[in-house]
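Exercise 3.2. Students should predict the tertiary structure of the chain below and write it as C-alpha coordinates, then compare their answer with the key that follows.

Predict this chain's 3D structure.
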Amino acid sequence: MKVTVIGLGPGGGRDLTGRARAALEACDLIVGYTAYLDLVRPDFPDKEMRSTGMRREVDRCRAAVEAALAGKDVAVVCSGDAGVYGMAGLVYEVAQEYDPIEIEVVPGITAACGGAAVLGAPLTHDFAVVSLSDLLTPWEKIERRLTAAAQADFVLCLYNPASKNRPDYLRRACDILLRDKAPDTVCGTVRNIGRPGEEGQILTLARLRDTQADMFTTVFVGSSQTKVLNGKMVTPRGYLQRGE
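Answer key:
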Protein backbone atom coordinates (compact mmCIF):
# COMPACT_ATOMS: atom_id res chain seq x y z
CA MET A 1 0.00 0.00 0.00
CA LYS A 2 2.50 2.53 -1.25
CA VAL A 3 2.98 5.16 -3.97
CA THR A 4 6.53 5.76 -5.18
CA VAL A 5 7.00 8.86 -7.34
CA ILE A 6 9.89 8.32 -9.74
CA GLY A 7 11.85 10.70 -11.95
CA LEU A 8 12.99 8.97 -15.14
CA GLY A 9 15.64 11.54 -16.06
CA PRO A 10 15.52 13.99 -18.97
CA GLY A 11 15.81 11.54 -21.85
CA GLY A 12 14.67 8.18 -23.01
CA GLY A 13 15.85 6.10 -20.07
CA ARG A 14 19.62 6.41 -20.45
CA ASP A 15 19.81 8.53 -17.29
CA LEU A 16 17.52 6.35 -15.17
CA THR A 17 19.18 5.93 -11.78
CA GLY A 18 19.80 2.59 -10.12
CA ARG A 19 17.41 3.51 -7.31
CA ALA A 20 14.69 4.40 -9.80
CA ARG A 21 15.16 1.15 -11.71
CA ALA A 22 14.93 -0.88 -8.49
CA ALA A 23 11.71 0.91 -7.52
CA LEU A 24 10.17 0.17 -10.92
CA GLU A 25 11.15 -3.48 -10.64
CA ALA A 26 9.53 -3.72 -7.20
CA CYS A 27 6.17 -2.09 -8.01
CA ASP A 28 2.93 -3.80 -9.10
CA LEU A 29 1.56 -0.96 -11.24
CA ILE A 30 3.15 1.91 -13.16
CA VAL A 31 1.03 5.04 -13.67
CA GLY A 32 2.03 7.91 -15.91
CA TYR A 33 1.56 10.09 -18.95
CA THR A 34 1.39 7.95 -22.08
CA ALA A 35 4.72 9.14 -23.50
CA TYR A 36 6.56 8.34 -20.25
CA LEU A 37 5.12 4.85 -20.06
CA ASP A 38 6.37 4.27 -23.59
CA LEU A 39 9.89 5.02 -22.31
CA VAL A 40 9.83 2.35 -19.59
CA ARG A 41 7.68 -0.31 -21.29
CA PRO A 42 10.59 -1.95 -23.19
CA ASP A 43 12.46 -2.59 -19.91
CA PHE A 44 9.37 -3.60 -17.93
CA PRO A 45 7.11 -5.33 -20.49
CA ASP A 46 5.30 -7.48 -17.93
CA LYS A 47 4.29 -4.66 -15.61
CA GLU A 48 0.70 -3.49 -15.40
CA MET A 49 0.53 0.09 -16.66
CA ARG A 50 -2.13 2.77 -16.51
CA SER A 51 -1.86 5.93 -18.59
CA THR A 52 -3.58 9.29 -18.81
CA GLY A 53 -3.20 12.01 -21.42
CA MET A 54 -1.68 15.46 -21.24
CA ARG A 55 -3.17 17.77 -18.60
CA ARG A 56 -4.75 14.84 -16.73
CA GLU A 57 -2.28 15.07 -13.88
CA VAL A 58 -4.85 15.12 -11.08
CA ASP A 59 -6.66 12.09 -12.50
CA ARG A 60 -3.31 10.30 -12.78
CA CYS A 61 -2.49 10.91 -9.13
CA ARG A 62 -5.95 9.90 -7.94
CA ALA A 63 -5.70 6.65 -9.89
CA ALA A 64 -2.35 5.93 -8.27
CA VAL A 65 -3.55 6.67 -4.73
CA GLU A 66 -6.73 4.61 -5.18
CA ALA A 67 -4.73 1.68 -6.54
CA ALA A 68 -2.43 1.88 -3.53
CA LEU A 69 -5.42 1.88 -1.18
CA ALA A 70 -6.60 -1.26 -2.98
CA GLY A 71 -3.36 -2.97 -1.96
CA LYS A 72 -0.95 -2.36 -4.86
CA ASP A 73 2.55 -0.96 -4.76
CA VAL A 74 2.26 1.84 -7.32
CA ALA A 75 4.93 3.78 -9.20
CA VAL A 76 4.05 7.20 -10.62
CA VAL A 77 6.58 8.16 -13.29
CA CYS A 78 7.48 11.52 -14.78
CA SER A 79 10.42 12.92 -16.71
CA GLY A 80 13.42 14.55 -15.09
CA ASP A 81 13.16 14.73 -11.31
CA ALA A 82 9.77 14.05 -9.71
CA GLY A 83 10.22 16.97 -7.32
CA VAL A 84 11.28 19.57 -9.91
CA TYR A 85 8.19 20.58 -11.91
CA GLY A 86 7.20 16.92 -11.46
CA MET A 87 4.38 14.93 -9.88
CA ALA A 88 5.67 14.52 -6.32
CA GLY A 89 3.95 17.56 -4.84
CA LEU A 90 0.63 16.77 -6.51
CA VAL A 91 0.67 13.18 -5.21
CA TYR A 92 1.06 14.53 -1.68
CA GLU A 93 -1.78 17.03 -2.25
CA VAL A 94 -4.18 14.49 -3.74
CA ALA A 95 -3.39 11.91 -1.06
CA GLN A 96 -4.85 14.26 1.57
CA GLU A 97 -8.31 13.42 0.21
CA TYR A 98 -7.90 9.73 1.13
CA ASP A 99 -6.97 7.46 4.01
CA PRO A 100 -3.25 7.65 4.83
CA ILE A 101 -0.84 5.80 2.55
CA GLU A 102 2.94 5.62 2.37
CA ILE A 103 4.53 7.93 -0.22
CA GLU A 104 8.17 7.80 -1.30
CA VAL A 105 9.91 10.14 -3.76
CA VAL A 106 12.78 8.72 -5.81
CA PRO A 107 14.93 11.52 -7.28
CA GLY A 108 15.96 11.72 -10.90
CA ILE A 109 18.20 13.85 -13.08
CA THR A 110 16.40 17.06 -13.95
CA ALA A 111 16.86 18.88 -17.27
CA ALA A 112 18.95 21.57 -15.59
CA CYS A 113 21.61 19.01 -14.67
CA GLY A 114 21.32 17.00 -17.88
CA GLY A 115 21.54 20.08 -20.09
CA ALA A 116 24.35 21.62 -18.07
CA ALA A 117 26.47 18.53 -18.67
CA VAL A 118 25.97 18.89 -22.43
CA LEU A 119 27.05 22.55 -22.39
CA GLY A 120 29.97 22.13 -19.98
CA ALA A 121 29.66 23.44 -16.42
CA PRO A 122 27.32 26.45 -16.36
CA LEU A 123 25.79 25.70 -12.94
CA THR A 124 28.96 25.46 -10.86
CA HIS A 125 27.95 28.56 -8.87
CA ASP A 126 24.59 29.87 -7.60
CA PHE A 127 21.73 29.51 -10.07
CA ALA A 128 17.97 29.88 -10.30
CA VAL A 129 15.45 27.78 -12.21
CA VAL A 130 12.38 29.47 -13.73
CA SER A 131 9.66 28.00 -15.94
CA LEU A 132 8.35 30.34 -18.63
CA SER A 133 5.05 28.48 -18.83
CA ASP A 134 2.19 30.64 -17.58
CA LEU A 135 -0.29 27.77 -17.56
CA LEU A 136 -0.11 27.59 -13.74
CA THR A 137 1.85 30.76 -12.92
CA PRO A 138 0.80 34.28 -14.02
CA TRP A 139 3.25 35.95 -16.40
CA GLU A 140 3.51 38.95 -14.08
CA LYS A 141 4.97 36.71 -11.37
CA ILE A 142 7.35 35.06 -13.88
CA GLU A 143 8.54 38.52 -14.91
CA ARG A 144 9.24 39.48 -11.29
CA ARG A 145 11.24 36.30 -10.76
CA LEU A 146 13.29 36.86 -13.92
CA THR A 147 14.01 40.44 -12.88
CA ALA A 148 15.06 39.44 -9.36
CA ALA A 149 17.35 36.68 -10.65
CA ALA A 150 18.96 39.01 -13.19
CA GLN A 151 19.54 41.74 -10.61
CA ALA A 152 21.09 39.18 -8.24
CA ASP A 153 23.41 37.97 -11.04
CA PHE A 154 22.27 34.36 -10.83
CA VAL A 155 22.91 31.92 -13.62
CA LEU A 156 19.43 31.11 -14.92
CA CYS A 157 18.03 27.85 -16.21
CA LEU A 158 14.78 28.35 -18.11
CA TYR A 159 12.30 25.50 -18.48
CA ASN A 160 9.43 25.52 -21.01
CA PRO A 161 10.91 28.49 -22.91
CA ALA A 162 8.35 28.47 -25.74
CA SER A 163 5.55 26.45 -27.28
CA LYS A 164 3.10 26.64 -30.15
CA ASN A 165 0.80 28.78 -28.01
CA ARG A 166 3.69 30.83 -26.53
CA PRO A 167 6.06 31.37 -29.47
CA ASP A 168 7.47 34.69 -28.22
CA TYR A 169 7.98 33.91 -24.52
CA LEU A 170 11.73 33.35 -24.76
CA ARG A 171 12.10 36.68 -26.58
CA ARG A 172 10.01 38.37 -23.88
CA ALA A 173 12.13 36.79 -21.15
CA CYS A 174 15.35 37.93 -22.83
CA ASP A 175 14.02 41.48 -23.07
CA ILE A 176 13.43 41.42 -19.31
CA LEU A 177 16.89 39.98 -18.61
CA LEU A 178 18.60 42.51 -20.89
CA ARG A 179 17.51 45.30 -18.56
CA ASP A 180 20.07 44.04 -16.02
CA LYS A 181 22.37 41.69 -17.96
CA ALA A 182 24.88 42.57 -20.67
CA PRO A 183 24.01 41.63 -24.27
CA ASP A 184 27.22 39.57 -24.50
CA THR A 185 26.30 37.40 -21.48
CA VAL A 186 27.20 33.79 -22.29
CA CYS A 187 24.11 31.63 -22.81
CA GLY A 188 23.34 28.15 -24.06
CA THR A 189 20.47 26.00 -25.25
CA VAL A 190 20.09 22.24 -25.26
CA ARG A 191 17.38 20.40 -27.16
CA ASN A 192 16.34 16.76 -26.74
CA ILE A 193 18.45 16.21 -23.62
CA GLY A 194 19.31 12.53 -23.38
CA ARG A 195 17.32 11.69 -26.50
CA PRO A 196 18.29 10.95 -30.09
CA GLY A 197 19.13 14.22 -31.81
CA GLU A 198 20.47 15.86 -28.67
CA GLU A 199 22.08 19.17 -29.59
CA GLY A 200 23.48 22.11 -27.67
CA GLN A 201 24.73 25.53 -28.69
CA ILE A 202 26.47 28.42 -26.96
CA LEU A 203 25.53 31.98 -27.86
CA THR A 204 25.15 35.47 -26.39
CA LEU A 205 22.06 36.80 -24.67
CA ALA A 206 21.53 39.17 -27.59
CA ARG A 207 21.50 36.22 -30.01
CA LEU A 208 19.39 34.11 -27.67
CA ARG A 209 16.65 36.72 -27.93
CA ASP A 210 16.15 35.82 -31.59
CA THR A 211 16.58 32.06 -31.19
CA GLN A 212 13.74 29.62 -31.80
CA ALA A 213 12.98 27.23 -28.94
CA ASP A 214 10.28 24.74 -28.00
CA MET A 215 9.16 22.58 -25.08
CA PHE A 216 12.03 20.15 -25.74
CA THR A 217 14.59 22.94 -25.21
CA THR A 218 16.23 24.00 -21.95
CA VAL A 219 17.87 27.43 -21.86
CA PHE A 220 20.84 28.56 -19.77
CA VAL A 221 21.66 32.23 -19.17
CA GLY A 222 25.03 32.87 -17.58
CA SER A 223 26.04 35.24 -14.80
CA SER A 224 28.60 38.01 -15.23
CA GLN A 225 31.30 35.43 -14.40
CA THR A 226 30.22 32.81 -16.95
CA LYS A 227 32.65 32.34 -19.83
CA VAL A 228 33.45 30.07 -22.75
CA LEU A 229 36.36 27.72 -22.04
CA ASN A 230 37.52 25.24 -24.68
CA GLY A 231 34.21 25.66 -26.47
CA LYS A 232 32.14 24.97 -23.35
CA MET A 233 29.96 27.17 -21.12
CA VAL A 234 31.58 27.43 -17.70
CA THR A 235 30.71 29.41 -14.56
CA PRO A 236 33.79 29.38 -12.30
CA ARG A 237 33.18 28.52 -8.66
CA GLY A 238 36.05 30.80 -7.67
CA TYR A 239 38.78 28.40 -6.56
CA LEU A 240 41.44 29.79 -8.90
CA GLN A 241 40.27 33.34 -8.28
CA ARG A 242 41.04 32.95 -4.54
CA GLY A 243 44.70 33.24 -5.39
CA GLU A 244 45.66 30.06 -3.54
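Discussion points: The mean pLDDT is 94. The radius of gyration is 19 Å.
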